Records
---
Amino acid sequence: MAQRIEIGLREGMQDAPGDKVRRRLRAELGLEVAAVRCVDVYTVDAELPAEALARVAVGALSDPVSERAAVGRPFADDGPPFDWALEVGLRPGVTDNVGRTAREALALVLDRPFQPGEGVYHARQYLISGALPREAVERLARDLLSNALIQRHRVLSAAEHRAQGGFAPEVPRVHGAGRAPLETLSLELADGELQALSRRRVLALNLAELGAIRDAYRDPSLRAARTGVGLGPEPTDVELECLAQTWSEHCKHKIFQARVHYREAGGPEELVDSIFKTYVRGLTERVRADKGPRDLCLSVFVDNAGVIRFSEDWSLVFKVETHNSPSALDPYGGALTGIVGVNRDPFGTGQGARLVFNTDVFCLADPFRATPVPPGLLHPRRVLEGVREGVEHGGNKSGIPTLNGSVVFDERFLGKPLVFCGTAGLLPARLRGAPGHEKAAQAGDRIVMVGGRIGKDGIHGATFSSEELHEGSPVSAVQIGDPITQKRMTDMLLVARDRGLYRCITDDGAGGLSSSVGEMAEGPGGCELDLTHAPLKYAGLAAWEILVSEAQERMTLAVPPERMEQLMELARRYQVEATDLGRFTSSGWFHVLDQGVSVAYLPMAFLHEGLPRLELRAEWAPPARDDRLPPAPADQAGLLRRLLGRLNVCSKEYWVRQYDHEVQAGSVLKPLCGLEGDGPADAAVFRPLLDDFRAVAISHGLCPRLSDLDAHAMAQAAVDEAVRNAVAVGADPDRLAGLDNFCWCDPVEGPGNPDGAFKLGQLVRAARGLYELCVAYGVPCISGKDSMKNDAVVEGRRISIPPTLLFSVLGLMDDARLAVSMDAKRAGHRVYVLGTTRPELGASEYFGAVGLLGGAAPRVRAAENLALYRAVHRAMRRGLVASCHDCSDGGLGVALAEVAFAGGLGLDLALSQVPASLDALDAVHVPASFRWRDDLLLYAESAGRFVATVAEEHAAAFEDELRGLASGQVGVVMAEPRLRVRGLAGGVILDEPLAELKRAWQAPLAL
Amino acid sequence: MAKVRALVVSGNGTNCERETAEACRLGGADEVVVSPIWDLSAGETRLRDFRLLCLPGGFMDGDDLGSARAAANRWRHARVAGGERRLWDDLRAFVEAGGLVIGICNGFQLLVKLGMLPRLEAAEPVQRVTLTFNASGRFEDRWVTLVAEPRSPCLFTRGIERLELPVRHGEGRLVGAPEELEALTREHLCPLRYADPATGQPTEQYPLNPNGSPGGVAALCDPSGRLFGLMPHPEAFLHRTLHPRWTREPGLPEEGAGVAIFRNAVQALR
């Protein structure tokens, strides 16, 4: 019989979490209530005497000073009156971190281990004082406090609560027994039936792929071999699922690998033989060859993350992933698993890297949207708060500082938000005489799974979510991450690494064991994976589910047999589960067994090489001519305030504050800087070793709006912005490493996607742009990821994201003490604008604010920019630069205002001194009559520009370094806290108190 | 001169152990050992071999039952392998033998919830105050100004008047019965308070006081001054380049102000 313990704050205590809920009810749902009080509910599903329950309720689960516990009766009975009680609990099978910790605490305090089937489950109760109708309480549950995909809620009025004696105990246990049976599936079917099979089982295989599998099974030698291990001629469900995972777009990047027939603006057809090989890997190979002995790359595109040289003793590992679909369904869980998931990429690279920082970039729709969202989608405000909190919990609880990120808004992210999560790690350059970035399992090594248990979590990812969820059926579409289980695991594995207890490590991510073991088995050439003892969260899973489950917090190791005992002993001590799941072989077969019988037997070569390639069509044409300009503004100060308050420009302090960006004591330039610690840093500078001043700058660029003009410009602007941000804080432009994340809308044309060929054309343009600029800048891509299906179809309407390339950069610095921040430092310093401003206002914040969508895209002039970046870096190494700020969204006007208010110092400026030119490359979109105006000069978004301030005594030396490059001294820093701008005609066009500008910049997202 | 061996306890969600160990080294400890709590409960690391015990920040057990609540259960109830002794017995013996203890952030929350701060009773420990959710309801990372209580018996804050450190917590607001809080002030057991940098006076004003602690209390010590806990992170300010305005303030000393707290501990043990 399950029993409830309810714990809440004593009367008179401020209920800060409850107050926060009350504020959100007002801000997000427009509901006014007098009070919300939070109660934690523990449902103990174990036979425990009343005395023991009372003891743990007070001693182990509640705080004797601030809280009161009620055992077997409602907490609310002894408290102030309320109008509604709402209780939100997890659905069966959803990761319950609080319940898990409570169970461990009870077992420890009572000295009584929990038996299988027994458990403790957590739920959150809200006692609401406010005269709301029941419908409103249901709505706040649905739209704010509960997500029906993973949670369920119950509502009681005060009268019902009294009459029923509170909520009855509810145990979200998964009911299941034994192993679900193995099935075989014939592929000797007509085309239509094959496709139906793929759909029914969510295999996401096309006809050519299914045909290739069918043909392979017809091979007599395969059949004979299968007979030898007791399998019939038809594939088992385990085999089909394993192939579907291994061959999925997610794992094999089929679109990036496809043969693309590309045609541009009616020109001849060109063949792009794999976008990935031609452009992404191609650029890295080219850059590495160009760099020769100065090449930083150690391991690129072959492991879970890229590896570069940091020092003689240490290498840096970096990866950025996306977690878009899960975040659309459950923003909190999606982002949380996004961050703890990408943590495992550097952790599973080489021999395993200690994690040193995270990055996060979100692309969202307007959080203040007033109109209702289409059914099936979540309101952007809820997505925003959910993903923010997911990264907060994932990063903070893992002890990894979140150092760099941004939030970009566009209406088209309503259908699918983009959630980019990145993690870097520090890896010993050598371990026991071998390079730390190398790893290889050997035949005979044991397969050991470490960390969390296997459930139905994440099977088939988000595609499964369309199935109706019902009582007793665990949730598989959405997952909740468990940072503490992962932290225990990574703590333990770093010790195992240093003791040499394993030979190879990789993470269990997409595709679960089928991918991790399948990949590790490539080296030795086979495996015998035995699922019999695989640790499960609950009974009732089929063998195929165990194999492809994407349950979180797991790593797979290859352990030499003679190290097994030590490894298992270490795992026991650290309270980490580790299970022997068989061995690697050189048999040439991917062999899976379960409970004594074979359930899969696939040739390794077919598993990894059997996938037929896609043939795709792509086309692109430039947008129609649009050379409109806005009318000259009457109120320059008002325009600047308006642009500072644009969602893409305004302060993101709300996010940054809630992320720990200082743990590990290496954050030399933090995301917020300046006099009051609230200025927008261009990039972070991090010193990963406590006894070494070498540092790394972390930056990124993304400009999705430019895709409306040309994805080539979009990609190059992203790369340039990332590089420029890194250079602005002191990174060496000749020692940068990049990482590309392509997030696209479906680029495969089809009946539901008529402009697929154009979207693929945009992808080709973007990849070319990336190639050209990275080669010109000498920036290799060390790793990357593509996510190709960022569309939502709601009410028959397709919402596609703007094609987006996120480019992240690591920049090496010899000495963190030479880092430069963006805030103005002293009155009397000179202000310079570096780089040329051109009539490039297409897709700018200014144009967006006045409703113009076309115009000339900013085009990157690689040679010109690189020369400038090198000069700026030389000046920084000589200590000549007091501040440096990148000039991007909102152009010079925004950049100058930020430099001023971050430093708490005024600027007195003359626009006539800004280096400018009329030679836009997209001249067709610039009217022939174009003449510079103050507003156009202030808000053009040309690439390659900085605002820098320089002390008077360094001015000559600084100008010397910049000789021959576009640079203008536009004014001086002044003590008076105002931004004063003299227009091209000489008169003062803007003279604004910094406080006003800063308020305009801070207000919009001060949530 | 007595050798000072420092133990930094890690594991189970603790995450500031590396920089805390570095702070001990910079503070002059002769030997610093970082050991997971699992090695303590295995009996492999023994508290009695050390003089300074550091309980660093993090999220032990995820703070799932409230900050450091589950961790306090662990310290109180977990047995040391090979006997009936509990971790708690070893901790108590360590204190009775004259060892110094510093708890930072999550470690401070642990000391409070174990009933070791503000005073460890001779008999069964009693939790007299607590640290709970910030008034804002949010976790925040921000730098604060702290002023020291000159009359405090605290050995860790000797000679310190004022310093800047970052806070990074969601549960740092001190709560207790009014008479209990008055006694803390009367006995000078609040060695550090959040202060307004303009006046140098303790403050309850957000964000200068980031969590709404009454009287700006940021730290507690016991009457002996040997047990000390604080919400801000001294181990996060080991070098001037970790100060948020170092690029604007060329006059900052090379050593970060956080080191002084650890140096004081080492000096007191000499």
---
Amino acid sequence: MQLSLGPVLYNWAPERWRDFYFRIADEAPVNTVLIGEIVCSKRSPFIAPYLPAVIERLRTAGKQVLLGSLILTSLPRERRQMAELVDTAELLVEVNDLTCLKPLVGRPHAIGPFINIYNEASAAFHAQRGATRICLPPELPLSSIAAIAAALPNVLIDIFAFGRVPLAISARCYHARLHKLTKDNCQFVCEQDPDGLMLKTLDGAEFLTVNGVQTLSSTCANLLGDAEALREAGVGSFRLSPQDCDMVAVISIFRAVLDGREHVESGTRHLAQLYPDVPFSNGFLHGRAGFLSVAPDARSGQPHQFREPIKPHML
Amino acid sequence: MELICPAGTPAALKTAIDAGADAIYCGFNDETNARNFPGLNFSRDELREAIALAHRRSVKVLVAINTFPRAGAVSLWHRAIDDAVAAKADALILADVGLLEYAARRHPGQRLHVSVQAAAANADAIAFYTETFGARRVVLPRVLSVAEIAGIVRETTCETEVFVFGGLCVMAEGRCSLSSYATGQSPNMQGVCSPASHVAYEQVDGRTKSSLGGFTINSFEIGEAAGYPTLCKGRFTTKHGTGYIFEDLVSLDAATLLARLRDAGVTALKIEGRQRGRAYVEGVVRHFRQALDALDSGLPIDAGQLVPFTEGQATTVGAYHKTWR
Amino acid sequence: MQQNSSSSLFLRKRCPGSSLYSDTMNFSKVPPPAPSPLPVPPLLALAVRPLPLLPLQAVLTVVLLRICGEHPRIFDRLGEHARKRFGIKPTDLPFGFLLEPAPSRPRLSVVRSLPDDVDARISSPLAGLFGLVEGHLDGDALLFSRDLVVEGDVEAVLALRNAIDDAQLDPMAEIASIFGPLAEPLKRTLQIARTVASASNRSHKGI
């Protein structure tokens, strides 16, 4: 089982962003690293100056580097950005919106988790056009993952295995809206929340997080306990999504558990220490509500056991 | 501009025809369409009869098969396509690339529309669908301004269809897992957003609390206008305060923009609401038929009459105005 | 609550040994629905107050059986929800209805208060309920304006709403065709109710 590190989804200060990847390059046992601003095109100029150095450092360290495309492309400026991205022949592009697929047809490329692949037929469609690796949508249950992986033995199937789960993308910026700013003059207020802005229900239960135009879960996906089942299903890679915590350590724990050097329970405990106060979830994988945490042995046909991730109470 | 109207039942379809629809969209009563609600939609027989009736009245019927097939069960969706074609559907509304490929290959003459669930939000994405599958029309996601729509029309040969009234997805359509995060059921997979089976209304301290999958979505005081218990229209709390984080309780009403949409070169106007009753179909379709007639005659368009049908008893033009973002 | 002796007798006969229809039972664990912005039409309340429930029950049973016979598609649309029990409470009437649409034996009972264990409870001024059955009002719009309150099994209510909306029912015509001139008192009452209903709805909706 390989490990891939998803792109940083948050608006981190450019130097921090650079140093994050430098450290990943130097220390993290990860096979593939996704880079690029995929959430908001307005943030792209900030990291642009550091991109070449980051790519260089990662490649020198032996990591495969992929460039991620924007999740939602609508403006002419964004389309130009995507056209330039696709021209970067040297690096594999991970397609997150079909906008940039046409020029990539016939060339090896990757399909990101924001492309709707729910079945073996649509996966095969992309494989026939040059997709060599597919990170499936986080919403997919294990049965679907297994069916897709079985149908495409030559495509590397990557599964979103750690991080707050991206749930939606919008043309509207919720950070700007919350700060009573327009999107065009947003003052990049999303930088105030490097791990997203927590959104609670009226009775105080943590529910979702907001990252500019993107909405993510409040829980953190953690498929460590499901690794064996996913391996059996033909999954070839785990996608770990950067959060505001020690991601080198997170990656190392996943590596250790996957290699059998650490037990799932102890690995999970370590993850909880590294990323405290954020409940884990894996409900999507089990065909349940995504926020739920289902015990790994539930798939053996025993009744589902849920960890109680929310404690609603009246204000 | 064509007026495309929703029908969740054969009775609603008849109502839409009588109220002045140019075309009606509907779906089968299963998970192949994105309004898979209890008691709603068409059996095979009902669809055949409905299409025959509509054709006698010179009205088109577009069949939405716009969920993403479940892995290992794709044949269910293929059968829906075959049956819709056999029932003489005027077009199929599809979102999944596998289904588009199947329909284009198996039924080469069949007119294909790209569903809003495919979220084709720019000319490049649209070109992908037209060139790969011969799609004739794209239903544009509700993330674009009128100016951007005009730009798309200039760049593509594909017909464009835009929403003018009804429920407003705040997130890019077809790319939203909020519902399944709370309930395990999503528009893309099961064809339901915020499924009724997971909705609860509760009276607490004189307020009505709505919840979805155990999460409180909103709380209304007596007499306060309400909306669907969808997550994107919920009231939530952040460190900055409490309110409608994603979108206020509103529905889309673009009646005031009809002239601009026509000038932008839009082919068809779509009314959301296959889950609504005959009264909604009658009221909204007739209103937009009159508005289009007024537009053709250069008369002013009567706006704002449809407020009783809207969430929160309020309307917005949504992303059509750039400032919405 | 003032009880009409004939209805109490009737209810006890229908449900021997059951406390569900107990005269004193407060049907709700939750507070009653909020007063509706639809004004309670005093004319309507006056018109129905003297109406004895037993004859009403008889009329409704016949009407329901006829509707079910003529619109079998209702059961297709209801599906599994046909087995559910729906409590229907016109907020401006001193009684409610218990609808059990099971195809084998559909029942519509008049009750002084709704039993506690219904699967779903639907409350609205009679105007709203009439409008829904006849298809003149949109259920979601009534929910948005808070003229309709749904509690319990929302999915079942949705199925019921869709099934009824598709059936294009005309209860007045059904009553007229079944009872002819014999139905005059009831028809008059319902006609008043409907007139008041649509008038109050028009004034409320501004249309």
